[in-house]
Amino acid sequence: MTKIAVVTDSSVTIEEELVKELGIQVIPLSVMVDGILYSDADLKEGEFLRLMKSSKHLPKTSQPPVGVFAEVYGRLAEDYDQIVSIHMSHALSGTVEAARQGASLSGAKVEVIDSSFTDQAQKFQVVAAARLAQAGASLEEILKEIEQVREKTELYIGVSTLENLVKGGRIGRVSGLISSLLNIRVVMEMVDHELRPIVKGRGAKTFKKWLDELKAGLQGRSIREIGISYAGKSDFAEEMKAQLQPFLEAPISVLETGSIIQTHTGEDAWAILIHYA
Asked: What pTM, to 2 d.p., does this model score?
């Protein structure tokens, strides 16, 4: 039986127990706050947001060095026949390209995959791949499942301010937004590696009205899993969970997103990730 390892990066939002259970290798990105470099893996829940709120400048994120990927792949190649490495969209970070370069340097048999997403939408692909790998599936079967999961996934993100997106240079990748309108609430969908605004408004009703529209659109659809991620307080995330849980039998994961995503979304941001059957 071919042994296949699954690797991802820390932009994924995933339960620690799943990482351990499925033997997933998570390569951490880094974030610099006021001249101090932190590994994404070392920041505990709520810690990064406290650092960001007290910092003088917007934190700077950085992808793992090519050498780190090469080292991890080389080490895994000692125990595994092949490696599947799944990473966040190239539109958000150069991580996937660093992974490709690291794979080339390592000499290991590595399939590097651009998930087209991040956060729990990336988790859907990673977990599906890891479960199949653990069950002894072939590389072809795993790659086919990853593609199917990707095609059946939707990612929605809500931000309460555009300030971090503007400062971080991501605003140019969000088509149709006016950067001067910093204090508006925006809901975006990630499609073809691009964040597309679908709702803009002021006040808490902006998000709640969109949620009602989402629920209407979910009626009668078969859903495999839903994830909800948040930056800051979890109150609205829990409210969304209560309203969306009736649409599926599996429990909805509500998780704090990591420092990489929080840097660009700012406080009080959230994401809903849906994997359809």
From this structure: 0.91
